């Protein structure tokens, strides 16, 4: 497999290019500023700065705004990028769609925000447009404030979905200080506290080129991409290096806020059965760990989750025999820059019984280790699913984006893939105590309101 | 004046076409694709005479298939079955049903890698499928009662989950009320059916699918002939070729006052259907697809640009042209206090667009977007060079028999000028002919 190439411009912007045979190309511009980031160290002053929950997501919504065009068809230039009001605004999404892009969007994850498009036509011109709106915040004050309405509805939609609420509850029980305890999107209250000044400061901090990654996949040429980006950064006055913000440890302690909520479960009128979400958080230390160690933890966590709870594992089969609900019982892991979790979920009538079974089973496997055959099965399943997912250019690009958010190098995706192939069962087992620490385990129960 | 034809697009779309060469009792459609994967889809399709019969049969076959997935003689649990596929380095094939109107389709869908590795994997995967279908524990007297109850409960839970997902439940309530000829049974009705079905009912329904079905095999990849034979062996169980009927257009009937269904959704689920004055032909349908894009068929449509981007009332609002239900239907969910504003705004936008009040440039933009998007399909985004994209298109064309091929659609789409689209919109669409349907707290 051609693994691509990586360039770093003078500004510090990383460009990773993975050429694939496709009629399309896919570009992603990523900042490691996600929902989990509630504190950072200012690069210039060295001081630690706190952020309102939902800041990264709010920013993702408003960064598509572009200034109006003048009579000559060129963007108008104003003394300020934050006028009180402005009409005939453009938005980057529409600009790209009107210039042949097929898929255009952005999302905020826990550990990164990603602006992306897929196109067949005008790939480099469209890339310039995306660089324009991502690197130049144009935020009329009235428009900025109105975005609260849209995001408020997005929050309400999430609250109207029972499973989303169960995941939110688990995160709040599991994390003591980490930003992961609060939803990426923030709350109705926190988004109203985000000011325009905050957002401009965040842009200057998190959207400087030295802090960002561009990933290009599909029908792309690395040199042509780098040339376009360099020229655009020069035009925007962003070609010189300015140091990125400092990552700060979230100082998340071992242990959880609450081991369970069984005394006061989440009660909802729109669920008909008791549902449990349980599992373990685990912590990574990207500031002190070598990239190889980070990769090994990510790889071991996915193999462990698959071997423990993935469909087809002998352990899952044993848990079903022991009484978990075969129809709904499942497990998986989530992996971010400085934390992750292994979770199980399923319908359950007996919350205490469910927890005991899962906890005792995991403790036994931590003590005895996963058998080699189970690591082999998990390896096969992960690699087979990964091969299928790579078929879609969008999925392939997203896998590079998530790898990049975790290690700061998107092409580490290929190192992760190689590690899935050669990590030994002994190496996986050596990391199990860190991944399945009983002190980091919590269970969240949701019940029908009338029960 | 239409847009100029782009030979590159025309060529890419022609490469998605399949050629037919029947084998035994099956209609076999083959496409050559240079890709990292290959795909095969076997569809066994039969007509039940009425949608209600087909819905009942589908539910019973779903229970049967849930039981089959619980294991067979060699792989006696659901986990051991899944494990067998992955150890053969393939994902578990999807064995499921699909239904439209009175037609029920039993589907076996397999993805394998390209080349010889894929041919070998297809053989292994279909060996396991054949065994799980031939000797399921569900049919073993020692296990059948337990497996049947597990399977029944699984289907009951999936039906209950449908009620709990508010946006999709709102759509199913709308369909039940306005398209009983396609959606004749409510979810509670299906729950009753699932609870009361006997073992004999379920076996009879499963065997009934094969008894009178027409097999259609779709193959796309770099060695389609190589992956065909293991699937053809399975198709031999079915009755044989019949002619599949083309999909006909249903009509909703007269619209009336707003209808509000009560349920536990805190947000109001808002649906609004604009019915067409008559059933359009293929060319008019293409124009209406474009008019729907102007109205609300994506981010750049008026609904999103006005209701979200101008007024910031909702996170998302989209419309879709339901060609085989002869309507344009929009959907959103919102704060219940906004019902009046959403009602008024959607109506204002409909009044403008349906009366042809859109700029030539706006129309040209959606026309160009529609053409580009023909090259891809979502969920996740796939491009027209991929076998999975091509199989889905072939399924629409040769199994559902809906519409025309992509190359022909492309030629039609490019041929419109804005004036013709306006004329068609005026003829078929009226803002006064709408039905509002909401679901949520009273």
Description of the molecule:
- The complex is a heterodimer of chains A (451) and B (442).
- With 451 residues, chain A is of the alpha+beta class.
- Chain A has two domains: 5-235, 2-Layer Sandwich (Cytochrome Bc1 Complex, Chain A, domain 1); 266-448, Metalloenzyme, LuxS/M16 peptidase-like (Cytochrome Bc1 Complex, Chain A, domain 1, 2-Layer Sandwich).
- Chain A contains 15 helices and 15 strands.
- Chain A has helices spanning 55-62, 92-97, 123-135, 141-159, 162-174, 188-192, 196-206, 222-235, 291-309, 314-321, 351-368, 372-389, 393-407, 412-422, 425-435, and strands at 5-8, 14-19, 25-31, 39-41, 48-50, 65-66, 90-91, 101-108, 113-119, 213-218, 266-268, 275-283, 330-335, 339-347, 441-448.
- In chain A, the strands form four sheets. Chain A has a six-stranded mixed β-sheet, sandwiched between helices. In chain A, strands 11-15-12-14-13 form a five-stranded mixed β-sheet, sandwiched between helices.
- The N and C termini of chain A lie far apart (55 Å).
- The model of chain A has no long low-confidence stretch (mean pLDDT 94).
- Chain B is α+β, with helices and mostly antiparallel strands and 442 residues long.
- Chain B folds into two domains: 23-235, Cytochrome Bc1 Complex, Chain A, domain 1, CATH 3.30.830; 259-440, Metalloenzyme, LuxS/M16 peptidase-like (Cytochrome Bc1 Complex, Chain A, domain 1).
- In chain B, 48% of the residues lie in helices and 19% in strands.
- Chain B is built from 16 helices and 13 strands.
- Chain B has helices spanning 7-14, 51-68, 78-87, 115-134, 144-164, 166-178, 187-196, 199-211, 224-235, 282-296, 302-310, 339-354, 360-373, 387-399, 406-415, 418-428; strands spanning 19-20, 27-32, 37-47, 94-100, 103-113, 214-221, 259-262, 268-275, 317-322, 327-334, 376-377, 382-383, 434-440.
- In chain B, strands 1-2-6-3-5-4 form a six-stranded mixed β-sheet, sandwiched between helices.
- The radius of gyration of chain B is 23 Å and the shape is globular.
- The mean pLDDT of chain B is 95.
- Chains A and B meet through helix 2, strand 8, helix 4, helix 10 and helix 12 of A and helix 3, helix 5, helix 11, helix 13 and strand 12 of B.
